[in-house]
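Subject — a protein and its fold
Fields — amino acid sequence, structure tokens
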Amino acid sequence: MPPRRPQSRKLPSAEEISQLVGRIKSDSKPGNANYREQSLKLHGWICAKCGREFERHNLHLLTVHHKDGNHHNNPSNGSNWENLCAYCHDDEHSRLILAEYLNGKR
């Protein structure tokens, strides 16, 4: 039996690569380095979606979600952030992917 060929994968477009590189660069800037800490202080150690409360030993599971999807939009009042546990954050982004798929955009 001949060996199976791996399934071909869609390569990211130049625009997608450029956006990813931009996000990596912006996340490494000092101004954006502390938005997680700011969000934790403003919104507390609780998931905005499921209400799970966090303590120091599991705080790494609490992430900051940018409501408008723009990681460059980091107002100091926290209006573009919501703290989501890793599971709710993943669910939030999966919903967007599913919506794009169902609308024929992916």
The chain has four helices and two strands. The first strand starts at residue 62 and ends at 66. The mean pLDDT is 82.
